[in-house]
Amino acid sequence: MRLEEYEELVSRLTSGVRDADTRKAYQEVFDADTVSTLFKLMESGYIKELENVISTGKEANVFRAVDRTGDFVAVKIYRINTSEFRHLWKYIEGDPRVRITKRSRRAIIYQWARREFKNLEIAHKSGVRVPFPIVHRKNVIVMEYIGDENTPAPLLKDFPPEDPKPFVDDLLTSLSRLYYKAGIVHADLSEYNILVWENFPHIIDMGQSMTWDHPLAYEFFYRDMNQLLKVLQRLGFKEFKTPHDVIRELRKRAKEG
After folding, report:
1. Which residues pair with 144 in a beta bridge?
2. pLDDT of res. 23
3. Could you count the other beta carbons within 10 Å of the beta carbon of residue 22?
4. 161, 126 in Cβ contact below 8 A?
5. What is the chain's pLDDT, residue by residue, as a tens digit (257 residues)?
6. Crossing angle for the helix pair 85-92 and 105-125, to the nearest 10 degrees
7. Closest Cα to residue 234, out of 174, 152, 167, 184?
């Protein structure tokens, strides 16, 4: 890609951006291949224009965008040049769904994005409340945007639900479906990976999520249960005293369907 083409595409992608912090977030993820991928998604109508940044993380930035029909979508872009990519390998290695012939930074990041998209697909089909996955290309995922025109859905850590009882009921049902119907272990569950919108929980960030046949699945499952116990107790549900209390509840809900 020539420099002039690159600059033109970046200008078209960010034509609606006014905020300096958002422009900085773009610079962190934009390289020639990523810009080319985004432009192809524009040509297909999945993205018309990128807008503001929703979140920034160690491996990826998430932006709100508008598609061809004018609806909001969330665009998650994994940074190819992230310094954290080595830690991703332990999640990918041993996953029977993944075949990497070349252990390069780019290959790992592409597989990571592919895994997240696939995990979201399986979870959504199993009735788990997750953002609907729309399309995946290389290191970019386009998915349902949770929020409205003024603000994205906040994290549970920042915005406890107004009415915890129905929120927790829905959360436990979703998680029982995730672990026992979809057969997926989240592997990084916490109040940082649960959105709150209209008093419903939405589970996010599933790049590290794995099936039960992964060699580390049970280790991460029990870590998830410890974190979920902390969430439940913070929300006032003191009847859950140990991670095993939480596991029993999830299994009971799974049996009830």
Report:
1. 73
2. 61
3. 20
4. no
5. 454 555 566 666 666 555 666 666 666 677 878 888 988 998 899 998 888 889 988 889 999 999 999 999 999 999 887 656 667 777 887 787 777 666 688 888 898 999 999 999 999 999 999 999 999 999 999 999 999 999 999 999 999 998 999 999 999 999 999 999 999 999 999 999 999 999 999 999 999 999 999 999 999 999 999 999 999 999 999 999 999 999 999 999 999 97
6. 50
7. 167
Question: What is the CB neighbour count within 10 angstroms for residue 27?
Answer: 9
Which residues form the catalytic set?
188, 205
Maximum distance among all Cα pairs of the chain, rounded to whole angstroms: 62
Q: Which residues pair with 202 in a beta bridge?
A: 195
The pLDDT score that the predictor gives to residue 51 is 84
What is the helix (H) or strand (E) element at residue 43, kind and residue range?
helix 32-43
Helix, strand, coil in percent for the chain, rounding step 5: 45, 20, 40
Distant-in-sequence, close-in-space partners of 241: CB < 8 Å, separation ≥ 6? none
CB atoms within 10 A of CB 45: 10
93 Cα distance to chain centroid = 20
Q: Cα-flanking dihedrals φ and ψ of residue 176, to 5°?
A: -65, -35
- Alpha-carbon torsion angle 7, 9, 13, 15, nearest 10: 60
Q: Left if phi > 0, otherwise alpha if psi is -120 to 50, otherwise beta: which for 201?
A: beta
Q: Around Cβ 143, how many Cβ atoms within 10 Å? A: 22
Q: Which of 120, 207, 200 is nearest to 156 (CA)?
A: 200
Residue 207 is classified by DSSP as S
Amino acid at 196: V
